[in-house]
Amino acid sequence: MNYELLCNKVISIAKLTGNIIRKEALQFDANRIEYKGLNDMVSYVDKTAEQRLVQNLEKLLPDAGFITEEKTISRVGKTYTWIIDPLDGTTNFIHGIPAYGISIALYEDHSPVLGVVYELNRGEMFYSYKGGNAYLNKKPIQVSMNPDLSSSLLATGFPYYQFDKQAQYLKLLEEMMQKSHGVRRIGAAAIDLVYTACGRFDAFFEYNLQQWDFAAGCYIVQQAGGEVFDFSGGDDYFNKREILATNGKLSDEMLTAIKRYF
């Protein structure tokens, strides 16, 4: 498998789909919003983008399986599985806030081998592939070198359902606010992760995520020299759906704080 060539083809597919999303952003019809659950919105744009991604990705690996947010297709693959979020940051998109993008990951035998995250508003393409580095618009990227929380800027997400852990999360958030340069909440986990990969953020933490939110972003963080954990400090974040991604230097300090509350 030529992963670099495959990644370049996925980047082209992401750009084509991004053009569709940009066009729809100019004429978005808010009356066509649907609710999948409490505060969990989906638009016709999400579904159209996902269908286009699936159609084109199928041509690259016809036997691959798919895990997709909008479930326009659900198929188990023997070796390869695409994990897709066609519009990460849907709530931002619906409200006209310019922070959303496309996330595409490829898993081979249950391990990531390719990740692409396309932030549409700034035209930033983050990507990596097996055997390669992590890149932003063809330039290599790496995580930050900040050595501790006191010199770091953090990112997180707020739960919009399953509020049973909200109290302990707010205590963790309070501690992180006091010990760091600040905590940002952009509203798109895939973008938070790639911003961590390129050093804009020093770490990102969130729970109640879905696989399509983080599959590509976590891989890009790791390929950029960072570390990814579940809240226990293990590597089962894919199933636990809780993420701590760091530059590698903050891992112990942040895990110690997280374990106080989770």
Describe the structure.
- It is a single chain.
- The protein is of the alpha+beta class and 262 residues long.
- 37% of the residues lie in helices and 26% in strands.
- It contains eight helices and 14 strands.
- It has helices spanning 3-25, 44-60, 90-95, 166-179, 189-197, 211-223, 237-240, 251-261, and strands spanning 34-37, 40-42, 65-68, 80-88, 101-108, 111-119, 124-129, 134-136, 139-140, 153-156, 182-184, 203-207, 227-229, 242-246.
- It has a seven-stranded mixed β-sheet with strand order 3-4-5-6-7-8-9, sandwiched between helices. A five-stranded mixed β-sheet has the order 11-10-12-14-13, sandwiched between helices.
- The termini are far apart.
Fraction of residues in helix: 25-40%
Output the structural class.
alpha+beta
State the end-to-end CA separation: 40 Å
Tell me the overall shape: globular
Oligomer: single chain
Rounded to the nearest angstrom, the radius of gyration is 17 Å
Order of helices and strands: HEEHEEHEEEEEEHEHEHEHEH
Number of DSSP helical runs: 8
Main sheet strand line-up = 3-4-5-6-7-8-9
Largest sheet properties: 7 strands, mixed
Estimate the strand proportion: 25-35%
Count of β-strands: 14
**What integer is the average pLDDT?**
93
List segments where confidence is low: pLDDT < 50 over at least 5 consecutive residues. none
Summarize the topology.
Layout: H1 3-25, E1 34-37, E2 40-42, H2 44-60, E3 65-68, E4 80-88, H3 90-95, E5 101-108, E6 111-119, E7 124-129, E8 134-136, E9 139-140, E10 153-156, H4 166-179, E11 182-184, H5 189-197, E12 203-207, H6 211-223, E13 227-229, H7 237-240, E14 242-246, H8 251-261
Parallel strand pairs: 3-4, 10-11, 10-12
Antiparallel strand pairs: 1-2, 4-5, 5-6, 6-7, 7-8, 8-9, 12-14, 13-14
Helix pairs in contact: 1-2, 4-8, 5-6
